[in-house]
Amino acid sequence: MKQSKSSHYGRPAFLFDLDGTLIDSVYEHTLAWREALEKMGIALPTASIHRRIGMSGGLLVHAFEREAGVKFSSAQVERMHGLHSAAYKKRSQQVRPLPGARDLLLELSHLHVPWAIATSGKLKDAKPSLAMLKLSAKVPIITRDDVEHAKPEPDLFLAAAAKLGVEMPHCVVVGDSVWDLLAAQRAHALGVGLLSGGFGENELERAGAYRVYRDPADLLAHLDEVGVRGE
Amino acid sequence: MKQSKSSHYGRPAFLFDLDGTLIDSVYEHTLAWREALEKMGIALPTASIHRRIGMSGGLLVHAFEREAGVKFSSAQVERMHGLHSAAYKKRSQQVRPLPGARDLLLELSHLHVPWAIATSGKLKDAKPSLAMLKLSAKVPIITRDDVEHAKPEPDLFLAAAAKLGVEMPHCVVVGDSVWDLLAAQRAHALGVGLLSGGFGENELERAGAYRVYRDPADLLAHLDEVGVRGE
User: Fold this and answer.
1) Which residue of B has its CA nearest to A196?
2) Are residues B16 and B103 in the same domain?
3) Interface touch A215/B45, C-beta < 8 Å
4) Which domain holds residue A131?
5) Interface TM-score (ipTM) > 0.90
6) Cβ-based contacts of B48 with chain A (< 8 Å)
7) In CATH, what number is assigned to the domain containing residue B86?
8) What does the pLDDT profile of chain B (231 residues) look like in tens digits?
């Protein structure tokens, strides 16, 4: 058994969040939720909506209910999700991949480092973002449709690791929100934070990030810090 | 002389930033700058644009130049400011006062606590936001037009305090960005941070905030913590 797992530790697998981590879409999602909430008669500060992006849609709506002191019926919740989807779609023309996102993924593939994408969104909503990254059809993608609970529950990352056939302690979760990092801790994976979703460095560290980078390009430039050796 | 200044310490004067502090406009300014930059051929992550909002327009453009590794001519800088103004105006219909903003200002007036507004923006750009707060024409407003340097230089807050006739050590600067709090330190005023601009609590504390609240409503609910006693 001695050292038999050393290659795993030398080249961990990477599990990526999508919105805010590979795609610069957090601000659009924030304003789309604000628009949906306003249409439901709820006024919340934009910054507090921002801090909920990345968590499961169900928990997000519960958080808004608590904050606004209201209780929605299931029909109202459904309507709100529809309003958000429409408001996001309206803004999606302005959404771009983050600097270095595609280069980072290509470099990992080039180095034979396994990686997957795990997003709290539904596949239909994630499709345009995935298309922007021009990924091979073989890339393992786990969405809200594949698991019972989204982030900060660990299910998405557990399913992504299972699809790669890698054990959790060999996985590095990369995300921009505290919800990714809390889910990483619950999944017993290491967490790496990116500032590209607009959370502060300290917020990500307090949620468990053992390293924080500016965006995918900055992570790519420092891969050797998180266990990926070049050729 | 004994205790002659005690009333000053009991009831400090308040100097308020505008965008992100009284008005929920930081996300609109962020996306307006991103649109202006993109039209100039510059792609920067939205989150890094966000973190510059609130600083002087000149410094902000310098920061973008550094980050993108470019150098603009003065004609290009002027064009970029024009593009930002137009892009912001397009979004300004969605801008709202922050929760509690007007109530907070009314309560201070009611308690005879002097207060003023000091914004890095120009008066013409700030006017719609000021109108939203339905302020009396007597409220002292200091804008970019009144001083040589905007935040994080202390000039705006120094001018606001002078207009109120209050010495800086008796002033509390209230702002949502690190630029407000750095300017407060340089002006030798106390700084109070609000999370309503989307900066993290730790970012504001590290920049000098001695107390941080969620938004104007939360500050109003805790005025006794920052030296304002009720009747």
Assistant:
1) B47
2) yes
3) yes
4) 6-25+96-226
5) yes
6) 195-196, 214-215
7) 1.10.150.240
8) 444 444 445 579 999 999 999 999 999 999 999 999 999 999 999 999 999 999 999 999 999 999 999 999 999 999 999 999 999 999 999 999 999 999 999 999 999 999 999 999 989 888 999 999 999 889 999 999 999 999 999 999 999 999 999 999 999 999 999 999 999 999 999 999 999 999 999 999 999 999 999 999 999 999 999 999 887
Residue of A nearest to B34 (CA): A94
B30 at interface of A, judged by CB pairs closer than 8 A: yes
Pick from A188, A183, A197, A189: nearest CA to A151 = A183
A102 touches chain B (CB under 8 A): no
Q: Which residues of B touch A24 (CB under 8 A)?
A: 45-47
Q: Is residue A231 part of a domain?
A: no
DSSP string, chain B: -TTTTHHHHHS-EEEE--BTTTBS-HHHHHHHHHHHHHHTT----HHHHHTTTTS-HHHHHHHHHHHHT----HHHHHHHHHHHHHHHHHHGGG--BPTTHHHHHHHHHHTT--EEEE-SS-HHHHHHHHHHTT--TTS-EE-GGGSS--TTSSHHHHHHHHHHT--GGGEEEEESSHHHHHHHHHTT-EEEEEGGGS--HHHHHHTTEEEEESSHHHHHHTGGGGT----
Residue of chain B whose Cα is closest to the Cα of A52: B198
Vertex B32 angle, CA B27 and B34, to 5°: 95
Same domain, A145 and A164: yes
Closest CA of chain B from A27, distance in Å: 7
Q: Point out the residue among A20, A47, A195 whose CB comes nearest to the CB of B195.
A: A47
Q: How far apart are CA A83 and CA A66, in angstroms?
A: 20
**CB pairs A-B closer than 8 Å:** 87
Q: Which CATH number goes with the domain that contains B160?
A: 3.40.50.1000
Q: Of B27, B94, B201, which is closest to A27 when you measure between CB atoms?
A: B27
Q: Residue A196 is nearest to which of B34, B47, B201, comparing CB atoms? A: B47
Q: Is residue A221 part of a domain?
A: yes
Tell me how many domains chain B contains: 2
From chain B, pick out residues whose CB is under 8 angstroms from the CB of A94.
Answer: 31, 34-35
Q: Does A50 touch chain B (CB under 8 A)?
A: yes
